[in-house]
Write a structure and sequence with these properties.
single chain; 389 residues; alpha/beta; 7-stranded mixed β-sheet; 5-stranded mixed β-barrel; globular
Length: 389
């Protein structure tokens, strides 16, 4: 096989990241926007020692698992990679990919992966967009990065965004002054003033409780599944009343506040000073009095606050960024030895890596619950539940 060869191939499966997997004489070829059981004519566009990459020239026999993408920018915009697959099969793919991450990276023969909780809405579910803007010859480009990550795809609307975000994108196009302020634009769903003009705070509602979030801060993006995420985390704690819960990477206090009825004390840790202020405001506005929020790095705060052993951690909640936990955080956990750990992640690969370390240091992994917070994309949220042996 050589570069630019045209080959016929049948797709066997979908790899982590969304590319179809086929073989030519047992040599693996990755092909974007392919579906299992597709029969394709493909051009080889990249050739490595152990694999190749191809692009579809013709779908000779389409898979019955195919669906019609809703988005007119699909296969150009880099935001989605599963719109060509029916939603039920997307869930099967994601469950398998969580299993494979914990088998290959986490070194578990049979990972305890539960059935994926589906999103109530497969489109128009995102409450936050990170757009890119750039001056072009004909005016301004406004949209998302393309498949290569190097160019902006100029868009009128995004089919996974809640509709008020699309309204705001159209308004931005009419206001070049706003576009010229910054190249990366964070747009939140909701009333016009909350998402564009008001640069200080955003309002989100989860299970009837209102949360204030900094405009540049983090909050769960799925408007329709966050309630289920919170329920699933709380279910792992109830009905026992425990002494101390630590909510690491707590953001604006989402899990801290919902877990507060199950503990005497809840301590949230977050690096963003504004997020900590908002977490305190959220707790006060909802009458929650057993929470404390600390601004600092998790790897520093954990040993500083709890190394004396006077206030032992009974439950540690981790919700780190996609990169996972720093090695110093994992070391602090194994030193402090909380009885239970709930590890929430949108990246099964780094989650599997970190949980492998915790398992080697005395923890059992009891369950992995995937929630499809990101339909049409390769991403999946997973709640890991661990207990000290």
């Amino acid at each position: 096989m050589r570069l630019k060869d045209h080959v016929t191939i049948k797709i066997e499966s979908i790899a982590f990241g969304g590319h179809g997997v086929g073989r030519i004489n047992n040599f693996v070829v990755f092909i974007p926007f392919a579906a299992p059981d597709d029969e394709l004519e493909v051009e080889i566009v990249e050739l490595k020692k152990k694999f190749a990459r191809g692009r579809i020239l013709k779908i000779s026999k389409p898979s019955p698992l195919r669906d019609v993408p809703l988005c007119s920018y699909y296969e150009n915009c880099g935001g989605c990679c599963y719109q060509h697959l029916n939603y039920e099969h997307q869930l099967k793919i994601k469950k398998k990919q969580v299993q494979e991450a914990f088998q290959k990276i986490g070194k578990m023969a049979i990972p305890p992966v539960l059935e994926v909780i589906a999103a109530p809405e497969a489109y128009h579910y995102r409450g936050k967009a990170q757009c890119h803007a750039a001056k072009a010859a004909a005016g301004w480009k406004l949209g998302f990065l393309d498949m290569s990550g190097g160019k902006i795809v100029d868009i009128e609307r995004c089919e996974i965004m809640e509709e008020t975000i699309n309204d705001k994108i159209r308004e931005l196009r009419k206001n070049p002054k706003l576009l010229s302020l910054e190249s990366n634009l964070t747009i939140w769903s909701g009333p016009q003033g909350d998402g564009l003009e008001n640069r200080d705070l955003i309002k989100r509602t989860v299970k009837g409780k209102e949360f204030l979030v900094p405009h540049g801060g983090f909050f769960q993006a799925n408007l329709y599944l966050t309630d289920r995420l919170v329920d699933a985390v709380c279910r792992l704690v109830m009905p026992e009343k425990i002494n101390t819960i630590v909510d690491a990477y707590c953001g604006s206090g989402l899990f801290s506040i919902f877990l507060s009825p199950y503990a005497r004390n809840v301590v949230g840790i977050e690096t963003g000073e504004q997020a900590v202020q908002f977490a305190q405001m959220n707790a006060e506005s909802q009458g929650v009095r057993n929470t404390k929020f600390i601004c600092g790095e998790v790897e520093s705060v954990l040993p500083q606050e709890f190394a004396s052993g006077a206030d032992k951690i009974d439950l540690l909640v981790l919700d780190p960024p996609r990169s996972g936990c720093d090695g110093a955080v994992l070391k602090a956990i194994t030193t402090l030895r909380p009885q239970k750990v709930i590890y929430i992640s949108c990246n099964p690969a780094t989650q599997a890596r970190d949980i492998k370390y915790l398992r080697e240091c005395g923890y059992d992994l009891l369950s992995l619950l995937p929630l499809d917070m990101f339909p049409q994309t390769e991403h999946i949220e997973v709640i890991g539940h661990l207990s000290l042996r």
